[in-house]
């Protein structure tokens, strides 16, 4: 399949809710859209949206690399079996130094091109039989009162799982906040907590010992030292999840950590679908659960991640509950209802709002 056209668009979307990432507040989300086309008229779309503080690359760096890649990949042959996610996309891209968000965007465009050529969804391309809906992990974010209001809405919507940001230095305040959230849900959900490696080991122990393991599904990145996870787990019986630490560790190291039971996989950060798929399969074999999570991509990227999650068949709530942060979107979809993402019947790029994006020449 010869790539006959590569178009690049940029977008800037205002946020309905302030997004605080690594100490910086964002009031808009910016990114790129890649459109790949082939000679039969089929097209695929990918999203490149590095997130401040989480991605190593800046938006300007990602754009520069994207424009170079556009010139290099034009009129190249996209392997028709790239949907196997076994390294064919890496061979096609042929550049180990690509930024993670750029690799994710071009892989997404290539895979959706293959799916659209066969008139099937991305989930069906990756796995013929899959769920048509993906359970979501409700994300509680913001100031305390806003968190409580969000929790009430999620309870009424019957979310199965919710995630709460913790990690503040006032441990008693964090315990009180966590207990208040659980009281709102009346113990109807298990709570996922994320400390973003902000605590010392002693702070994490104080929090865990006073709160107890009964209502906590896991704590994500409670502290920086991965070697302390077994001691933390053995003393508290609370499982640990990793997110930011994953790119820093070999899988042999990961699978040998007692008490580490969950991996948070963000393809935008990990470097695309092939790398996430390989890690997901390795984790399955080791008995480690995986949660596919977003980096506040637009609806275009979230839909691809939801399709990827459906194909992964994890059967657990995924971290894709971020569309409500946007005032507007570059696609016209409303797939979230009662704690689920429902895979649309038609490709989301069919509703791409070209008045919300700008083509780059």
Structure description:
The chain has about 350 residues and is α/β, with parallel strands linked by helices. It folds into two domains: about 5-125 and about 355-360, Enolase-like, domain 1 (2-Layer Sandwich); about 135-350, Alpha-Beta Barrel (TIM Barrel). Helices cover about 35% and strands about 25% of the residues. The protein contains twelve helices and 14 strands. A seven-stranded parallel β-sheet has the order 5-6-7-8-9-10-11. Strand 1 (about 5-20) and strand 2 form a beta hairpin. Helix 6 (about 170-185) runs parallel beside helix 7. It is globular, with a radius of gyration of 20 Å. The model has no long low-confidence stretch (mean pLDDT about 95).
In short:
Helix 5 packs parallel to helix 6. The mean pLDDT is 94. Helix content is 35%, strand content 23%.
Instruction: Specify the CATH homologous superfamily of the largest domain.
Output: Enolase-like C-terminal domain
| H/I helix tally | 12
Rg: 20 Å
Shape: globular
């Amino acid at each position: 399949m010869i790539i006959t056209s590569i178009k690049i668009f940029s977008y800037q979307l205002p946020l309905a809710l302030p997004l605080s990432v690594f100490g910086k507040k964002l009031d808009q989300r910016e990114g790129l859209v890649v459109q790949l086309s082939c000679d039969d008229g089929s097209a695929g779309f990918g999203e490149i949206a590095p997130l401040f503080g989480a991605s190593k690359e800046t938006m300007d760096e990602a754009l520069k690399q994207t424009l170079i890649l556009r010139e290099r990949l034009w009129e190249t042959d996209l392997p028709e079996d790239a949907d196997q996610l076994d390294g064919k996309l890496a061979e096609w891209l042929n550049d180990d130094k690509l930024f993670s968000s750029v690799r994710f965007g071009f892989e997404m465009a290539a895979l959706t091109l293959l799916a659209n050529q066969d008139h099937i969804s991305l989930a069906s391309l990756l796995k013929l039989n899959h769920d048509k809906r993906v359970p979501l992990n409700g994300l509680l974010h913001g100031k305390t009162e806003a968190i409580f209001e969000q929790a009430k809405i999620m309870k009424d919507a019957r979310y199965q799982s919710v995630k709460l940001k913790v990690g503040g230095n006032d441990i008693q305040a964090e315990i009180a906040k966590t207990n208040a959230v659980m009281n709102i849900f009346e113990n109807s959900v298990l709570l996922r907590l994320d400390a973003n490696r902000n605590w010392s080991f002693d702070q994490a122990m104080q929090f865990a010992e006073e709160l107890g393991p009964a209502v906590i599904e896991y704590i994500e990145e409670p502290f920086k030292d991965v070697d302390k996870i077994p001691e933390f787990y053995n003393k508290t019986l609370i499982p640990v999840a990793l997110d930011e630490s994953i790119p820093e560790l070999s899988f042999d190291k990961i699978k040998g950590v007692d008490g580490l039971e969950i991996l948070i996989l963000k393809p935008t950060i990990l470097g695309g679908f092939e790398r996430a798929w390989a890690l997901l399969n390795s984790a399955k074999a080791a008995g480690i659960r995986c949660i596919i999570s977003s980096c506040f991509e637009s609806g275009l990227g979230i839909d691809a991640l939801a399709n990827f999650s459906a194909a992964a068949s994890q059967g657990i709530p995924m971290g894709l509950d971020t569309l409500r942060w946007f005032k507007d979107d570059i696609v016209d979809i409303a797939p979230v209802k009662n704690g689920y993402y429902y895979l649309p019947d038609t490709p989301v790029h069919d509703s791409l709002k070209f008045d919300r994006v700008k083509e780059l020449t």
